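Peptidoglycan binding-like domain-containing protein
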Amino acid sequence: TNYPLSTDKKRAFRITELSLPSCLLHITKEAGGKFRVKKDNNIMSKIYNGYGGLKAKFATIATVVALSGVTAFVPVVAQGALTQAQVDAIVSLLNSFGADATTIANVQASLTGGTPVPAPSPAGKCSFTRDLTTGVTGDDVKCLQQYLNSAGNKVASSGAGSPGSETTYFGSLTKAAVGAWQAANGVSPTAGYFGAKSRAKYDALMASGPVTPPPPGPTPVGSGLTVTADPNQPAATLAPQSAARVAFAKAVFTASADGDVTVNSVTVERQGLMDDSAISSVIILDENGVQLGLQKTLNASHRAALTEKFVVKAGTSRTMTIAANMDSDLSQETGQVGRMAVVAVDAGTSAVNGSFPIAGNSMTVNSTLSIGSLASPTRGPLDPGAARSSLEVGTKNFLSSSGKWSVGSAEPVMLEQVRWYQAGSAGTGDVKNVRVVVNGTEYPAEASSDGRYYVARLGQSVEVDKGGNIETAIKLDVEGGSDRTIDFDIQRRTDVVVKGKTYGYYLTPANGTSANTSTQGEGFTSTEPYYDGYAHTIAKGTLRVEKSNTIAAGNVPVDVSNTSLGSFMLEAKGEPVQVTSFKVTFGLSAGEDGTQIDNVSVFTDAGAVVAGPKDVGSDESVTFTDTWTVPVGANTYVIKGKLTTDFEDADTVQAQIDPDGDITAKGEVTGLTISATPTSSTTANTMTVKRAALRVAIAPTPASQNVVRGVNGFLFAKVQYDASDSGEDLRITTQKMGLTPASGSTATDLNTCQMFDGATALNSGGNVVTPDEATANTEDLLTFNMDTEIIIPKGTVKEVDVKCNISNLPAASETFRVGLTSTNSDTTVVGKSTGVTVTESVTLNTGPTMTIKTGGTLTITLDASSPTAERYGIANKTDVLLVVLKIKATDEAIRLDRIALTLASSTASSSDIKKLTLWDGATKVGEAVFQGTGTRATSTLSLADFTVAKDTEKLLTIKADLGLLGVNEAATRGHLVTVNYDGEAVTTTKGVGLSSGGELNPTAGADTAGVGVRLVQTYPTFERLSVPSNTLANGEMTLYRFKVTADAADDLGIAKMTFRVSSTTVATTTIFKLFAYSDSGFSTNAYAQNPVHSRNVDEVSEDVWGNVSGSGAMGTDEIVFYFNPVSNTTPTVSSASTTVEALNIPAGGSRYFELKGSLASVTIGDSIAVALLGDSTFANNTNLVNREQADVVGYSAQNDFVWSPNPTTTSATTTNDWLNGYQVPGLPTTEMSQQNFTK
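Tokens:
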């Protein structure tokens, strides 16, 4: 018989084969009408000690039973009923407390297995006289909860707030229920705030009769459940001793399509020639390997009922595994063979279809196989080591419990799952971000529906070798739960799911050594809980006060109600804090006293009053006795009041609070007194008394400048309003200013004068000012009457624009000034709150001088961003950059409509360019074409507007679409294409002044001097590469490496390369060779012959072109190579008779070159420097223009690199299309950076 007994630790003894006397229960009536039922600890201690040899197993029970509006804690009969005598004794005790009949009936029903009757809805209409929101308490809150529960918008399904257990506290559950009720009844917004709108709706509903919510529709229940054997049964194998979760059988549960099916129990039976003693317990596992419910032992009929309910959704199947935890000593049962079978299934009203028994394969009991183990359980190093008696709310990453095991020597193991049990009174809302830590790694923990179990499923991620350790801990954040406990235990050894890697059996961790007593935090025990963690108590609520900068230090006025005098942050943790007394003291300047501050109140930052108003006493303090609640979290409160006119300017006021002495507070949940912190005074920002004040001046911008007549809305001045020293915001309604014309101008030359706050006109319609003084050089009064008043916030400076239209009447050099003059500078200004007239302080300034111009100036120059060196341009390519021009507009904005361009290079013709394009950044604004053989072109910027703002510059980019090269094409290879602005054709270039409207031409001058692009079909790009070693050694070694890449437009040819070799041991350096490869690894020959030069180069002494030595085209330290990758025919007499041809590099391809030399007699101190040479000027022959034969280029003064942009398989070095190395990308005009070698 099982006797559940409510204890302090809320555990129940299961006493086997004993007849115990009735236990002694204590029932006490607590505050709020609650009844608490508990055992007599002394009696239970005697019972436990008297039967110390029994196996006592614990199960947590903490069920709250609804008892007509009060809460009683009673034992729940889980495994056996109390006798009638015991029930009668409890009822008699309740009668002695004067409990009502409903309470007694509900207790009696609970104790006898019945269902308590929920509390009825409120007997009458609730009386709501105030707004109800989070943190509020009272009987009206309880009435609201009762109404919500009766209207179908339940506050909670069980526990506090549920039907029959309504409370007087408005918390998050009540807020959610109110929101649901608002949504259902059309109250907007659905914020969960029970205010005026909600009260009106409630009254309307109650006037038409109580709302009876429709009963919820029944959840469809499946008509049938089919149970079949899984075709993939666990294979027949050994069942070793101490093995856990040994899978014996699998069954498939399939629900009918018409509804879900709840399986109440599965009955299993041990079959075959196996003793029941071989099996310690039987369990059922779901498809994820999670154990459902408790483990069960076999009864005398070899059966066990697994009673943990599970649901099979309609039309789906679930596969369940019947598994066994084997006994730790199978020496007597070894060799026995048995199996497990499902023999019965209880599915309630759903018909069960199946051919029972459903049995798995037989397993052989084994006592000799040494499977892995988890031994030596001990408290882990992450364990706190003691119970925390005051765990603060807000604590992050708190390690509540930790256990550790050592892995045995039989096999490595894999930890798959750890399940912790929260035995404390804290709820899921109190602990957040729960993680299970395994060997230093954190894993997310899944909480069970009741918030008690937290499991981490690790899969196969945690493997530990033999002799290693497994440590697991529980880590969490404390979010709430004042005066509640956090107690994480491991209930059973099988909650640690670990599997051996060698044999594949699950293992049962070793028992602990501690005896399980009533002491908390015993660590590993031999019973349940398997690991008993410490119970940590969450501290009661706290209240902390600090200065808030919501109200910054600043100026404050006198005689203004609700002036902000300071702000404080009050942070409540653990529970809402109820404040019943709140004292504020004011620090004042000498000579002032507290009676000069009236009507002080405490406001939330949302503007709601929570305390006050009250006047400050002569002791400069005010104490509020209003009761208000500080919600959990950081909250800002503002102190407001009115300073009387007795205060003088520059007096200071500073609010301060001494938290532990000035605040009386208690926890709203616990009712316990809370001492606010810190113990020292907290002071708000200092406020300085200032009456309304304003300084008026002319801002430094805009500066004096030229302006073209005819401009509308021209900015003449900015008025600066400075309220830095004002104690309140200011309102300006009128501003008077002086307009001063000079140099022959008259005020009437201007019109439509307005003031602007940003883009907003402050005087419009009839308030627009038109100057009317017609006498030349005579000041005129401008009076701006604001139809939109100017507000200047205290402590700030605002600038307001003054703009007027300029007519076309003023002559050049006439001037105007708008400012604050000695005769015209008055401002009408009052305090925004007080309405007090303010006498402003004015800084006289007649304003900047604006000088009239009849038109602007257009200037065109070469911009510094324009290319400064010649470049190669690929034929037929579009948008090739030629030149960048700088267009400048002076005195007015100018729109450029037309620009004159010229073809500047003497070597190029108009046929080399298809067309020119003009660009404003990425926007094309115009095009131009050179007509016929002409060298001048005029571009009309008609594709997009090209406007240069007044007194600024803008860049105009000129690009070209280059001509085609080839047979019958007009463009010429090697031509230098250069285009510039034509500075002489000034009338051809035209701009339009946007203020004056007149046509503008630039001043005549020289053409810009841009550089051009040389027209080719393709060109090479060089890149120097590193060499394998820079240390000299005898034999052949690499002296230089580089890469040559042809542009993607076409192939190119190379006829000659030249290297400079400087050596301390020239005579010992012989036989230079140049190799070419097609890969960066220098492994694949690029040509049929490698090395690629036409003859050997033996020493640094002669030119090898055509076997002619002593040429002036080569220095004595140069090595020259000519190429013939097809044959190695040696030249005979002269260059004209050679068969030397070029190396071809395909379009977009690269060749990797390597210079090698044979070295001998290398000694320490020797050195060699090697570099590839370039050309400093273009090789030019006037007869052939810019195209030469290879030999002509080779013998020119600049001949170090000879190449062709138009090679073919039949082209020869005698064709007129050869260039030198000048301006080749990557090849400097002197030489590529050298490689230095030393010994």
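The CA atoms of residues 329 and 412 lie 22 Å apart.
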